[in-house]
Design a protein that fits this description.
about 80% helix; mainly alpha
Length: about 450
């Protein structure tokens, strides 16, 4: 008995040491609200990718048209342009936790309707497009509130770790959503995929409800007042972005990056079938993108020195384009999955680092609006690119639309690194430096 007691005590000590080692590597998890937000974002993002998989395959079966798949994906992403900027304004005015809960309710209601029309076998293309737009509107409203809330609940020194690990939740959902979605798709049909999405959104709502942090009125160089309209506050945020050159630089690069290297989802069902695959191949490609993204952002989370972060940004930027070149040359299911792995790793790392740079630059009073612009640029560009690539792929095929945009991004990224002082400093040092090194970055005032 004495041996058992000591053995149990030793196991507890080893467990405590392992937990402390884990927390030392991922310090953001010391915060209980961060852990709750991590679970909520994981589930919410998983539902989005399950929906993308299910809607894409459903429309592919209904129409056998890459253009139609692109139209549905466009409908899901275009709300980031229409709704996103105003969502950022709201996120700077109200309790961000409550805003997240409301967007979950919208998502559950919308996807439940999608379940109903597919189960009853009355689904038509316009149903899917309309419901994708409504669900995308709720998702567009949730992004700036969740990202801004993240910076509220962790210490500044843990921000890179927090953003990187949260990116694991977002990109890891590209595994969980398509993994379970593919299993349900092949076994039970597309309606089961949509039911899974409803369940995940409901669990995300529950996790958000348990967050204890509440957003208080924010202090800002130009405080938002009740007399300011949403349009005035939106204009104030746009003025700040225009004058803060560091932020504008990140947003422009993100726009090109998303348009040239991250807008290929609508072509994946066609690619899967063109190399002799089926829905399982399509799901495997989507899962590999998520696995690669997790590996990439987890690698970022352990980086400590800014100079190494700058080198990682260079590798991620160049790798995003070169991996698309390899993707476009893939001729078998195995090579396509391997290329998807590298594509997910480099692109996930690039977007995570870009968000970290924005979080470091922007004061909290502007954070919701700045991050809504980040989402607007990323998702808005991708929405139109999805539609355009879907249309062009029916004319020239999908491979040129994977190869040439990737090469163009590599060229543009190299030019930016050579010609732009901001980017050159970022790649060399790993940070933009103080705002005093930039011209006219003082936040504007609103009259």
């Amino acid at each position: 008995m004495r041996y058992i007691h000591h053995n149990g005590e030793s196991s507890c000590i080893h467990s405590a040491i392992a937990m402390e080692t884990l927390l030392a590597r991922f310090p953001a998890f010391r915060n209980s609200d961060y852990r709750r937000l991590f679970v909520a974002v994981s589930l919410s993002s998983g539902s989005v990718w399950a929906l993308i998989l299910g809607r894409s395959w459903l429309v592919h079966e209904l129409t056998n048209s890459a253009l139609a798949v692109g139209a549905v994906t466009f409908a899901g992403f275009i709300p980031f342009v229409v709704v996103g900027p105003f969502a950022g304004v709201v996120a700077d005015r109200v309790d961000r936790r409550r805003m997240l809960m409301m967007t979950s309710v919208i998502g559950m209601a919308t996807v439940s309707i999608l379940v109903a029309v597919t189960v009853t076998n009355v689904v038509e293309l316009w149903h899917v497009i309309l419901l994708a737009f409504i669900q995308g509107s709720g998702h567009a409203a949730s992004v700036p509130s969740s990202q801004a809330l993240l910076a509220n609940i962790v210490r500044k020194q843990d921000l890179l770790n927090a953003v990187s690990v949260m990116s694991v939740a977002q990109h890891g959902s590209r595994i969980t959503g398509p993994l379970f979605g593919t299993a349900l798709l092949t076994a039970l049909g597309v309606s089961a995929v949509f039911m899974l999405a409803v369940l995940m959104i409901g669990l995300s709502l529950l996790a958000t409800w348990t967050i204890r942090f509440r957003t208080s009125r924010l202090t800002t160089p130009a405080p938002p007042t009740e007399s300011q309209s949403a349009l005035q506050q939106l204009r104030d945020g746009l003025n700040y972005t225009r004058n803060e050159r560091r932020l504008a630089t990140v947003l422009v690069l993100v726009g090109f990056h998303c348009g040239l290297t991250m807008s290929f989802d609508s072509m994946m069902p066609t690619l899967a079938t063109s190399i002799g695959g089926d829905s399982g191949t399509y799901g495997a490609i989507m899962i590999a993108l998520g696995v690669g993204a997790i590996i990439g952002v987890l690698s970022l989370s352990i980086l400590k020195q800014p100079r190494i972060q700058g080198f990682a940004f260079l590798v991620a930027g160049l790798g995003s384009g070169l991996s698309m070149l390899a993707f476009g040359l893939a001729t078998t299911s195995t090579t396509a999955v391997i290329c998807a792995l590298f594509t997910g790793g480099t692109q996930g790392s690039y977007m995570a680092l870009s968000q970290v740079f924005i979080q470091e630059i922007v004061p909290d009073a502007y954070r919701g609006r700045a991050l809504s612009l980040f989402a607007l640029v990323a998702a808005g560009v991708m929405a139109f690119a999805f539609l355009g690539y879907g249309w062009l792929s029916e004319i020239i095929g999908i491979r040129p639309l994977l190869i040439f945009p990737g090469l163009l991004w590599v060229i543009l990224f190299l030019i930016a690194g050579i010609r732009l002082d901001n980017v050159r400093h970022l790649l060399r040092v790993g940070s933009f430096g103080s705002s005093e090194t930039q011209a006219t970055t003082t936040p504007p005032t609103t009259t």
